Structure formats: structure tokens, C-alpha cells
Amino acid sequence: MTGSAIAAARRRAAGRLPPLACGHRDPLLCLAASSGPSAYGLSRAQLAAEVARCRVRGWSEADLAARFDTPQAAP
User: Fold this and answer.
1) What is the Cα–Cα distance from 20 to 12, expressed in whole angstroms?
2) Per-residue model confidence as pLDDT tens digits over 61-73
């Protein structure tokens, strides 16, 4: 089966399923990570360093707050 044939088969199968909580019918279309703040597995120092790195790269405060628990990253 070619890639386009597999994609067509997935679309047909997804059309027969009820929508998921996110609204998609195919779980591969959903985001792999949640859209909420995430700091899983980082120490406070690592989190603060990552937030600082993202600030240097031009992330806005709104972007940082959406991705990280910024109060926890405060030094």
C-alpha cells in the first residue's frame, strides 16, 4: 500500500468513527502534547534556564505562560 492509499483509507475509517473530545475523528490529527503549561521532568533551575533561553529567542510572555509554569521558573 502506498502512502496516499494509506491516508485515503485512514480518512474513510475516520469518517465512520464518532468525534474524539478534541473534535477530530483521527487521533493522528490531534496534537501529541497537551496545550497547557508543561515542565515535566525539569528541576527549577533547568526550567528557569529554559524560560530564559526562550526569552532570548524572542518568545513573548504570553507564549511562555502558555507553555511553561513561569511563576515556578522564577529564580
Assistant:
1) 16
2) 888 888 887 676 5
One-character DSSP codes across 3-41: HHHHHHHHHHHHHTSPP-TTS-SSGGGS-SS-SS---TT
Tens digits of residue pLDDT in 30-48:
765 556 555 567 788 888 8
Spatial distance between the Cα atoms of 44 and 26, rounded to a whole number of angstroms:
36
Query: Cell numbers 533561553 label which residue?
Result: 53
Q: pLDDT higher for 60 or 21?
A: 60
Amino acid at residue number 22: C
CB of 27 closer than 8 Å to CB of 35: no
